[in-house]
């Protein structure tokens, strides 16, 4: 449902690799649906989501629509009791997202999110090594990424995003990744940005105290020259550092630092989109383990909203002598 770039470049192929065949393209634009159907070799098109969802061969829906249309498609899938995998975030606010989660719960369906950061092999390995005690007790999580602003590539010109939209999405992704890696919940936030409007800025820096006392620090920047993203877990015995894992272009590398020495950790080279589809399909059969669910999206949205609010309302300028 929807004809976005992620669906085109990644998810259709991932669905097929996982052993399923896309049957319908649903879009509010007839021409977009037709072109997507031809490009991706999907047999059926419709402007009406329920027509596709009535198909008895349809087992789940993948939603790749613009953010403001995701609610419509999720509600339609819930009414037909079809599981949903959706690009994140599922809504523009935590209040709307919580309502969608409740509708899906009442319908008895899984609402999951396509969060490639969770599925990335370096991040899954970091999580496992942390759980196994390889770096001791976690003290600090840091996520840093930056590049000159460039709207995400889209199939349709009118779908271009603003800096504020992308910074918000980046923050939501980082918050979700922090919860995934640490198994902890956000408790308290503080934030600064390069402008007075919170998310509408070139740079955003924030800190979150997590539920077990871990400090989570993040910097997301469009003002700095492009540099390799870094995700760091620092424990009281050692550190895990993932480089280049948030660029969307390469799998990145993972280093473990113990006793003053760096060790490159071998990684299983897996496509994060195929991993996401497999994780989603597994969640429809049994309890989910690592996949991002609707409830996770609500927490990430609520935390991002708190970051925006604290940046606008709670700051203390330093007085000059």
Describe the fold and architecture:
The protein is α/β, with parallel strands linked by helices. It has 2 domains: 5-114, NAD(P)-binding Rossmann-like Domain (Rossmann fold); 117-270 and 293-313, Dihydrodipicolinate Reductase, domain 2, CATH 3.30.360.10. The protein is 39% helix and 24% strand. It contains 10 helices and 14 strands. The protein has helices at residues 5-17, 30-40, 49-53, 67-79, 94-107, 116-119, 121-131, 163-182, 272-285, 294-313, and strands spanning 24-26, 44-46, 60-63, 83-87, 111-114, 138-146, 186-193, 203-210, 215-221, 227-235, 238-243, 253-258, 261-264, 292-293. The strands form 3 sheets. It has an 8-stranded mixed sheet, covered by helices on one side. Strands 3-4-5-14 form a 4-stranded mixed sheet, sandwiched between helices. Strands 1-2 form a two-stranded parallel ribbon. The longest helix has 20 residues, at 163-182. The model has no long low-confidence stretch (mean pLDDT 87).
